[in-house]
Amino acid sequence: MTDTMTAIAIEGGKGPADALKAVQIPRPEPKPGQILIRVRAAGVNRPDIIQRMGFYPPPPGSPETMGLEVAGEVVEGAGRWKAGDRVCALLGGGGYAEYAVCDARHALPIPKGLDFIEAAALPETVFTVFANVFEHGALKPGETLMVHGATSGIGTVAIQMGKAHGAKVIATARGADKAATARKLGADVAVDTKTEDFAEVAKGEGGCDVVLDMVGGDYFAKDLDALKTGGRIVFIASLGGGDVTLSIGRLMQKRGVVTGSTLRPRDADEKARIAAAVERLVWPWIEAGKLKPQIDATFPLAEAAKAHAHLEGGAHVGKVMLVTG
């Protein structure tokens, strides 16, 4: 193991996908309570694109390089981990590299039956869905969950986690093929938003208790229309626009809750709490075959620019991944 490693940097500090270049940088040294991971695979996520464009700086103390989730082998252990353990982990950054460090509490064992690529697709998506749908949205068995962006990495996981929890799932996607894919993943109802009004479909199904929205914009009014009395709308992104018009009277009539959150800026103790909860609730679902990460495409680490361009193209179904060999 050398003192340097290959990682992906943003040429000029920000820019388009082709600004991503493979460079040699010092290998990170774990601090007390951290583990060093030999990265075998890393997930590519929408926040990485936003960081690359210069709008999502890493939290204080996190690496400047991108990458929020990885899987690989522990090289230097801490906490419950020892050298050689196979883990996947949530990071504050630095996953687009041959080595990464993380708080030992933010790593989880790779579920039985999954390879490194599948395992690396889990942390950012599963933690996000758990925190937003199950905690902020308080989804209960027997309730109805609506998932927008159903064939995104987040969407494919949210459908499966909702079903594993005993909820009815209504999924929305742009295009008949993507709607069909959502049904194959377990959605009870799939809406092609190019040809159908998702609010009308949802109302025909009795309405929604929880809406997971990564679109925002003009989706918000329809979310509220589709909501049952006492329902919850949870925002995790605003790809369709960050400003919405809220009818206070309509929200009051529905006794609705509108909330949202980000994952990356949460403090280490909070992430550790979520990790422990995810391991208790979600890992058994994975090992029972109720949840399987959907991998759309893999790219070598050096081709991170192509991976970003592919994700930005919007045709993907599931996760886009980087592999280090």
Per the principal axes of the C-alpha atoms, what is the gross shape? globular
Mean pLDDT: 96
Going by helix content, strand content and strand pairing, the class is alpha/beta
In terms of DSSP E residues, the strand content is 25-35%
Largest beta-sheet details: 7 strands, mixed
Number of strands: 15
Helix fraction, binned, reads 25-40%
Order of helices and strands: EEEHEEEEHHEHEHEHEHEHEHEHE
The gyration radius over C-alpha positions equals: 19 Å
Distance between the termini: 15 Å
- Give the low-pLDDT segments: none
* Count of helix runs: 10
Notes on the structure:
It is a single chain. With 325 residues, the chain is α/β, with parallel strands linked by helices. Helices cover 30% and strands 28% of the residues. It contains 10 helices and 15 strands. The strands form 3 sheets. Strands 3, 4, 5, 6, 7, 14 and 15 form a 7-stranded mixed sheet that branches. The protein has a 6-stranded parallel sheet with strand order 10-9-8-11-12-13, sandwiched between helices. Strand 8, helix 4 and strand 9 form a beta-alpha-beta unit. Helix 3 packs across helix 4, helix 3 crosses helix 9 and helix 6 runs parallel beside helix 7. The two termini are 15 Å apart. The mean pLDDT is 96.
Spell out the blueprint of helices and strands.
Layout: E1 4-10, E2 20-26, E3 34-44, H1 46-52, E4 69-76, E5 86-90, E6 99-103, E7 107-109, H2 116-120, H3 123-136, E8 144-147, H4 153-164, E9 168-173, H5 176-184, E10 189-192, H6 198-204, E11 208-213, H7 219-226, E12 227-235, H8 248-254, E13 257-260, H9 268-287, E14 295-300, H10 304-313, E15 319-323
Parallel strand pairs: 8-9, 8-11, 9-10, 11-12, 12-13, 14-15
Antiparallel strand pairs: 1-2, 3-4, 3-6, 3-15, 4-5, 5-7
